[in-house]
Amino acid sequence: MGETIFSKTKGLTNTPFHYCPGCTHGIIHRILAEVLEELAILQDTIGVAPVGCAGFIEKYINVDFQGGAHGRAPAVATGIKRALPDKVVFTYQGDGDMASIGTAEAIHAAARGEKFTTIFVNNGIYGMTGGQMAPTSLIGQKTSTSPYGRDSSQSGYPLDFPLLISQIPGAAYVASVSVDTPQNVIKAKKAIKKAFEIQMKGIGFTMVSVLSTCPTNWGMSPIQSIKWLQENMKNYYKLGELKTPEMLNQ
Q1: Most buried pick, 46, 69, 96, 191, via CB within 10 A?
Q2: What pLDDT, in 10s, does the model give residues 8-20?
Q3: Which of 50-54, 72-76, 154-158, 202-206 is the least confident region?
Q4: Is residue 10 part of a domain?
Q5: Which stretches of the chain are DSSP H helices?
Q6: Is 165 part of any domain?
Q7: Is residue 241 pLDDT above 70, yes or no?
Q8: How crowded is residue 204: how many other Cβ atoms within 10 Å of its Cβ?
Q9: SS3 assignment, position 249
Q10: What is the domain-level CATH number for residue 87?
């Protein structure tokens, strides 16, 4: 008998992912599930799932979940964490959810220093509802509601949401990562793990933004979409640890 060198994490259910080919939600689910198992908090974690593609996470991660109305996941998470402070709580939200209709909830949760973690998935578009322009869509990016490309004179500029959150005093940890290469997947996992560890210390609000792809609504193949992310999104959105507890003490 050979030695087992790899096995499926207990943090995932047995339900196969249904996402479009090339969508990176599955990668993010996987590393999130691994982190929860490695920290031995699967039995003590409650997730909040919104609407949109991100809302399907409750089918795949092996923890208790509570649904939230569009954009209101931070408000739901606030209630859960305050009522059950010994539980580990997280929201999993897309950019059309958190950076648009849910902007107020997210900003004020950070301002209050609510002690839960948010995983923010940024693919620069509304994925489930038809590929409309999102607050994170890049200048010139073609979407179903900006067929000639986003025009700053009409629609303003893309919102770097993690950079915005990092400026709020109640935010204890904010990181912006990507899952476009194996090396970056490892970095993303480390950031997510650190965010949960800081939550468990009760320091403040934690958030990890993950640049993601949406090949179907971008009108690209999976390979093309990864290349587009690397050549465009990574040039606009600031990556790395944007806020850490160490910075708070400087």
Answers
A1: 96
A2: 999 999 999 999 9
A3: 50-54
A4: no
A5: 25-38, 73-83, 95-96, 103-111, 152-155, 161-166, 182-200, 215-218, 222-228, 234-236, 245-248
A6: yes
A7: yes
A8: 22
A9: coil
A10: 3.40.50.970
pLDDT at residue number 127: 85
Entry pTM: 0.95
For residues 88 and 119, is the Cβ–Cβ distance under 8 A?
A: no
Q: Tell me the H-state helices in 56-140.
A: 73-83, 95-96, 103-111
The helix (run of H) or strand (run of E) holding residue 176 is strand 171-178
Integer CA distances (angstroms), 8 to 14, 20, 46, 191, in order? 10, 21, 21, 21
Total number of domains constituting the chain: 1
Does a structural domain hold residue 18? no
pLDDT value, residue 116: 98
pLDDT of residue 3: 85
pLDDT band at 25 (very low <50, low <70, confident <90, very high): very high
Q: Say if residue 142 is exposed, middle or buried (CB neighbours under 10 Å; 0-12, 13-18, 19+).
A: middle
Q: With contact defined as beta carbons under 8 Å apart, do 26 and 214 qualify?
A: no
Q: Counting Cβ atoms within 10 Å, is residue 250 exposed (0-12), middle (13-18) or buried (19+)?
A: exposed
Helix, strand, coil % in the chain, rounded to nearest 5:
40, 20, 40
Asked if residue 6 belongs to a domain, the reply is no
Average pLDDT score over the chain: 95
The DSSP call for residue 68 is -
Length of the chain: 250
- Read off the pLDDT band of 6 (50, 70, 90): confident
Compute the distance between CA of residue 91 and CA of residue 8 in angstroms, rounded to an integer: 23
